[in-house]
Amino acid sequence: MRKSRLALLTGNRGFFGQTRKPWVSMDVAKMVRVFEAAGLKPEVMPFHAVVNGVADVRDAVVFYAFSQKPNLRQYIIDTIRFLDNGTNFIVPRYDLLLCHENKGYQELFKRRLGIESLASFFFSGADDLSGYPVPFPVVLKSVDTSNGEGVFLVRNEAELVKRIRGLERQSLATRLDLFRRKYLRRKKQHPYYPDYDNRTDCLQYRDYIRKERNFILQEFAPGLTWDWRVQAMAGKYYVIRRRTFKNDFRASGTKLHEFSREADPALLDFADGIFRKMDAPFLSMDIGKTAKGYCLFEFQALHFGVNSVIKSPGYHSRDGSAWRFTEARSEIETEIASGLVRYLDGREPDRG
């Protein structure tokens, strides 16, 4: 039976991202009115109230805000893992929270769900590369960037290592300290460590503090001049086509968007299949097309760009075995709240 209690977890001052930009909150009061009209009992509370025992969340649907700020992201991850205790229904589920702004875990989660897409590798640093048959050219992506940043096409191993080292470059202060440790320290002895050597210690310290960056290597899809952002909202699909710049393979971040009432049914079928496997009320998908068919580049379950919803002339939905386009102008708060209601009704139609 569907839980009628809804714990709506926000940042400080009721922040629930995002709208125009990641730092601009949705209007939580609008969402609450939609939830109440659907018979839910929303309780708005900040994460810190849950963490510190001020709010007791049990036997509830837990719907929560995301954040791109590193400390808040970890705080949210800790909070949601604590609440994922068997009594609550977490939306989006914990795995999708780990996928947020984390292209590495996205690849692992796709593999778990059996989603076949472009071949990829996931590494923690350049030293991991040894022994792997990297198929050049390949796309290098740092795991925690967006809008096309930290994404490079590399054509050979030397170029790949150079790009990775660029991501790992130490600050000037750190490099000066390493020089001092290597050349200017007086010779030391440690009675309990007779094998101690200044130079060896410096090299070990250098490797230990190296500013490594997790990254993925993804199969390159040649010849793409656009991709698609498909925004699934619990049965509604908003589609925009994103063009690449000339002589660039990246469509993300170009802002060369086309909002169209037409969409290839095969694209919608592909997006619908991915969405159903993810088991979430919302999913923002970046999709490309290769000679083998459509493929999923990246995805987010919340805290995604909202232009595909609010600027679109309408949305696509299934009409039996076909697809139908509905003219509509959408407000993000209403679509988020009503989408969650539709999702819960689809999973558990009886109310408790």
Q: What gyration radius follows from the Cα positions, in whole Å?
A: 24 Å
Question: How would a textbook summarize the main sheet?
Answer: 5 strands, antiparallel
Average pLDDT: 88
User: Main sheet: which strands, in order across?
Assistant: 11-10-9-12-13
Order of helices and strands: EHEHEHEHHEEEHHHEEEEHEEHEEH
Structural class by sheet pairing and helices? alpha+beta
- The CATH topology name of the domain at 5-99 reads Rossmann fold
CATH C-level category of the domain at 5-99? Alpha Beta
CATH architecture of the domain at 5-99: 3-Layer(aba) Sandwich
Separation, N- and C-terminal Cα atoms: 5 Å
Number of strands: 15
Helical segment tally?
11
Q: Which residues sit in consecutive blocks of at least 5 with pLDDT less than 50?
A: none
Q: Share of helix among residues?
A: 25-40%
The rough form would be described as globular
Strand content: 15-25%
What does this structure look like?
With 352 residues, the protein is an alpha+beta fold. It is globular, with a radius of gyration of 24 Å. It has helices spanning 28-37, 47-51, 70-83, 94-99, 103-113, 157-167, 172-183, 198-209, 265-278, 307-310, 332-347; strands at residues 5-10, 41-46, 61-64, 89-91, 120-123, 138-142, 151-154, 215-219, 226-233, 236-243, 257-259, 282-290, 293-300, 314-319, 322-327. β12 (282-290) and β13 (293-300) form a beta hairpin. It contains 11 helices and 15 strands. It has a 5-stranded antiparallel beta sheet. It has a 4-stranded parallel beta sheet with strand order 2-1-3-4. Among the domains are: 5-99, Rossmann fold (3-Layer(aba) Sandwich), CATH 3.40.50; 170-210, no CATH class. The model has no long low-confidence stretch (mean pLDDT 88). The N and C termini lie close together (5 Å).
